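Quiz preparation item.
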């Protein structure tokens, strides 16, 4: 069909005399011009558009195969950095909830761990214990790099008195860093999640962006008499 269309367009350009001569055999009908052969270019790897290695996913990096030794080194370096970032992300978000443990689980969950651990000893019937559990649930989601646990007090320490509850133990590298026995060390029944966050940040147990005690603007505030006083500790302070 394409050929016939081309031929018709050529024939339309002939005069009536030309057409008559062609019919009588005195003239040859013009032929369709030969087409130039299609040129297929072989685009080698070096001629391709630059690849966005910096923004490639791990799967895309795996699919990249290049004979260029320098580019191969770049791809390998990028792959290692991506894997390291994924490992760091997984490491820093492996908890994220307040979990209940039993006495049998205490050894593996607490005594054998180097992580920062916040352990709440509680009894269900005590209002302040319920308050602390609510706050710790919020903080556990906010700081997934820290392990937040709770355990019935008498399951952890047989005969532990209710008068000492709520009790919060803060561990790091298998050692107790701080014991908060009752909320009298904080703000009693008025203790907020921010109060607990400040206390834990002051110990280095969580990486908070708080710059000062949330009670700093309260009337009669005394920095020296606050939970620890001063700024929250960073993990770098451990070496000081």
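Solution:
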């Amino acid at each position: 069909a394409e050929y016939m269309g081309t031929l018709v367009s050529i024939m339309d350009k002939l005069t009536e005399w030309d057409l008559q001569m062609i019919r009588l055999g005195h003239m040859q009908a013009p032929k369709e011009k030969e087409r130039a052969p299609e040129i297929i270019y072989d685009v080698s790897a070096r001629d391709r558009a630059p690849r966005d290695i910096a923004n490639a996913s791990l799967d895309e990096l795996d699919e990249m195969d290049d004979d260029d030794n320098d580019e191969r080194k770049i791809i390998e370096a990028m792959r290692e950095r991506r894997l390291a970032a994924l490992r760091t992300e997984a490491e820093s978000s492996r908890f994220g909830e307040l979990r209940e443990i039993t006495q049998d689980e205490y050894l593996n969950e607490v005594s054998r761990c180097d992580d920062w651990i916040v352990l709440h000893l509680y009894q269900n019937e005590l209002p302040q214990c319920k308050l602390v559990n609510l706050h710790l649930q919020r903080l556990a989601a906010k700081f997934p790099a820290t392990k937040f646990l709770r355990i019935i007090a008498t399951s952890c320490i047989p005969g532990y008195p209710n008068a000492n509850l709520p009790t919060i133990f803060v561990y790091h590298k298998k050692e107790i860093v701080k014991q908060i026995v009752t909320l009298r060390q904080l703000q009693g029944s008025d203790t907020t999640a921010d109060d607990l966050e400040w206390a834990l940040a002051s110990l280095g147990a969580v990486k908070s962006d708080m710059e000062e005690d949330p009670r700093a603007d309260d009337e009669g505030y005394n920095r020296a008499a606050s939970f620890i006083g001063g700024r929250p500790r960073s993990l770098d302070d451990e070496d000081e």
